[in-house]
């Protein structure tokens, strides 16, 4: 099911330009390049569960967008990004003074179908983005505080402690991302955007075999970001 969902989204994004040209909408050909940055609030879905809050981190990168058609009032585009992102988890430990957080750094590549509604050249446009996202592990680090003794570890819920010294096994991850945004378009200064996204991981960061500690260990993130793009060319 996970692979089916990913393949379906990839096919949808890949076929969007072909379906757009086959429609009766107004032809567009516009390429825009820009930068983006924001804040990531991530949690890792563990099974067996690990109680945690959101791990905060930054994200930043490059964006490339190709607009291919205006179909009725919807502006259709494809967007690809290359982003550095700080993922990970921050545990909520209520049985002792121990604290723990782990930061996992990724290079992420979202492949997005984009539908906009509103002013195309001068004014405000709302938009939806949806598509698959690929992630490539770069590095990780952890922070520990408190006593960290055998006694405090034994008090962990369900006595789940295997995650602390467990290396990241899967250096490649994939999932689905989508969100809503607001874009201010200008004719000379470019495009200014604010956006909220959610990422749902379909792969695990640790091993998930019968002999492994966790059956599931997938990222899930809420992302708030701002972007700026400028047109490389624009033709109707």
Shape: elongated
Which range does the strand content fall in? over 45%
Average pLDDT for all residues: 91
Give, in spatial order, the strands making up the sheet with the most strands. Answer: 1-3-4-5-6-7-8-9
Structural class by helix and strand composition: mainly beta
Tell me the CATH topology: Porin
* Number of strand segments: 9
- Percent helix range: 10-25%
Question: Total number of helical segments?
Answer: 2
CATH class: Mainly Beta
List low-pLDDT spans.
none
How many structural units, i.e. domains? Answer: 1
Computed over alpha carbons, the radius of gyration is: 21 Å
What does this structure look like?
The model has no long low-confidence stretch (mean pLDDT 91). The protein is elongated, with a radius of gyration of 21 Å. It has helices spanning 2-22, 150-153, and strands at 26-47, 52-53, 55-71, 74-91, 99-118, 123-145, 172-185, 191-201, 216-235. It has one domain (2-12, 36-235): Porin. With 236 residues, the chain is mainly β.
């Amino acid at each position: 099911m996970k692979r089916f969902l990913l393949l379906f989204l990839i096919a949808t994004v890949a076929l969007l330009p072909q379906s757009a040209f086959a429609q009766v909408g107004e032809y567009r050909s516009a390429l825009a390049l820009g930068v983006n940055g924001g804040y990531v609030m991530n949690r890792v879905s563990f099974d067996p569960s690990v109680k945690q809050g959101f791990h905060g981190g930054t994200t930043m990168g490059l964006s490339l967008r190709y607009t291919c058609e205006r179909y009725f009032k919807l502006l259709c585009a494809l967007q690809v990004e290359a982003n550095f992102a700080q993922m990970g988890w921050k545990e909520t430990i209520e049985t002792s003074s121990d604290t723990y957080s782990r930061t996992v750094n990724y290079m992420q590549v979202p492949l997005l179908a984009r539908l906009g509604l509103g002013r195309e050249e001068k004014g405000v446009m709302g938009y939806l983005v949806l598509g698959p996202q690929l992630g490539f592990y770069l590095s990780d680090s952890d922070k520990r505080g408190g006593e960290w003794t055998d006694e405090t570890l034994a008090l962990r819920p369900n006595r789940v402690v295997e995650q602390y010294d467990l290396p990241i096994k899967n250096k490649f991850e994939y999932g689905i991302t989508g969100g809503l945004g607001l874009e201010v378009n200008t004719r000379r200064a470019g495009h200014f955007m604010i956006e909220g996204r959610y990422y749902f991981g379909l792969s695990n960061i640790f091993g998930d075999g019968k002999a492994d500690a966790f059956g599931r260990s997938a990222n899930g993130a809420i992302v708030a970001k701002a972007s700026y793009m400028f047109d490389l060319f624009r033709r109707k």
